[in-house]
Design brief:
Shape: globular
Number of helices: 9
Order of helices and strands: EEEHEEHHHHHHHH
Structural class: alpha+beta
Number of domains: 3
Helix content: 40-55%
Number of strands: 5
Largest sheet: 5 strands, mixed, barrel
Mean pLDDT: 87
CATH architecture of the largest domain: Orthogonal Bundle
Low-confidence stretches: 144-152
CATH superfamily of the largest domain: 5' to 3' exonuclease, C-terminal subdomain
CATH topology of the largest domain: DNA polymerase, domain 1
Strand order of the largest sheet: 1-2-3-5-4
Amino acid sequence: MIGYLEGKLLKKEDEGIVVLANQVGYVVLLPVFVMETLKNKSIGDQVSLNIYYHQTERQPKPVLIGFNLEAEKEFFQYFISVEAIGPLKAIKALNMPVRDIARAIESKDIQKLKTLKGVGERTAQKIVATLRGKMDKFALIRKEETGKETLLEDFVKQVYDVLVSQLGHKAIDAKRMINDAMKRNSCISNPEELFDEVYRGEKNQ
């Protein structure tokens, strides 16, 4: 099974790309929001993608689906858990950043969810019913990818690492978000409480 792929951009197609890695060309399907981030890439440029590998009895041909961030792949796995949304439908539906979709789910914004390709009123309601309450983490995703740093406190470090390495925040922004959250609520004592407070603060910005 393939979980990560790094290589040269060999070809751009309508719904994905071909990545040349170790002399093998891998066809990788990309949701619209991921494809947008690669529009400035030229043939021969280096690319790296987190891969969701899909193969079932009904879909025996392996399908590789690419994401910039590990958290985007995790969101995708949540998204396809919704009734009547399979991986191939999800690829076409995700035409806006995960951050925006997650916020729409948490705020029960049915109208915004209906702007996803192929998603009508009933499916939008199913998405909210299935996923609401699980999206706080994904609502904090940023488009920019960054490096990693460390902090001393154990549970603060856990949240910091997720914000930076999985959700794509700059180190300085992650520190600010955590510091602001701790100022608003000095009783925070575990990662879950800190994530909740960070999300509440960012949601209001």
